[in-house]
């Protein structure tokens, strides 16, 4: 199997590369897209076209958030499966185009939400499904992290689409959707830049969600 990393803009690209290289059944390729951090041991390509000529079976998109669409559409055109860094897109139009392209091509398009596979979350989900915790009436969750210092695009809204709410809240929202098997019917959010002030995007925020069953 051949898996290629599309761009090293996202800091997670190096982690994906390391995980793939630890496997003995995967050939790993990468198009750095002008970024550093590409480890030894994989096939590096100077251009995106060279990567596609390599004919990967799947790609991991680690580009700036606003560029996910261009890479995903190319992957669909090439008939290649995609694991895309979150957020999937920064607009509904882009997300819809990506999904429609994958469906038309018969390929898989998956957003990278690794917390779903964490053992602690799997245990929690199983407990909720069994009813061990009774009726769930409220859930409080937090996801804290620092502002990346080696990739300026994270705090450039033209490339990231947003800050903390875009980069961190998505994990919590995904877990809640899976845990409750539902999507929220009401959303209230506030954002601020109290930590790490002076950035062009929000660096903190609070989101309140309400679901159909009252949670």
Q: If strands are numbered along the chain, what order do they take across the biggest sheet?
A: 3-2-1-4-5-6
Class per helix and strand makeup: alpha/beta
Cα end-to-end separation: 43 Å
- Which outline best applies? globular
- Say how many strands there are: 8
Low-confidence stretches: none
Which whole number gives the mean pLDDT?
96
Annotated CATH topology of the largest domain: Rossmann fold
CATH level-4 homologous superfamily of the largest domain: NAD(P)-binding Rossmann-like Domain
CATH architecture annotation of the largest domain: 3-Layer(aba) Sandwich
Question: How many discrete structural domains?
Answer: 2
The helix content, as a percent range, equals: 25-40%
């Amino acid at each position: 199997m051949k898996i290629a990393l599309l761009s090293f803009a996202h800091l997670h690209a190096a982690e994906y590369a390391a995980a793939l290289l630890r496997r003995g059944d995967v050939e790993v390729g990468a198009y750095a897209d002008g970024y550093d951090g590409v480890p030894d041991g994989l096939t590096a390509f100077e251009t995106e076209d060279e990567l596609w000529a390599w004919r990967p079976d799947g790609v991991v998109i680690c580009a700036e958030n606003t560029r996910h669409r261009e890479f995903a559409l190319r992957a669909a055109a090439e008939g290649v499966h995609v694991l895309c860094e979150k957020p999937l897109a920064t607009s509904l139009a882009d997300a819809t185009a990506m999904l429609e392209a994958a469906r038309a091509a018969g390929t898989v398009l998956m957003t990278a939400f690794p917390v779903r596979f964490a053992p602690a979350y799997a245990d929690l989900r199983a407990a909720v499904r069994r009813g061990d915790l009774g009726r769930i009436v409220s859930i409080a969750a937090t996801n804290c992290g620092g502002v990346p210092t080696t990739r300026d695009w994270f705090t450039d809204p033209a490339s990231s689409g947003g800050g903390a709410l875009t980069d961190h809240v998505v994990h919590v929202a995904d877990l809640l959707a899976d845990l409750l098997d539902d999507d929220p019917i009401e959303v209230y959010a506030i954002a601020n830049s109290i930590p790490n002030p002076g950035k062009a995007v929000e660096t903190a925020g609070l989101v309140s969600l309400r679901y159909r069953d009252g949670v």
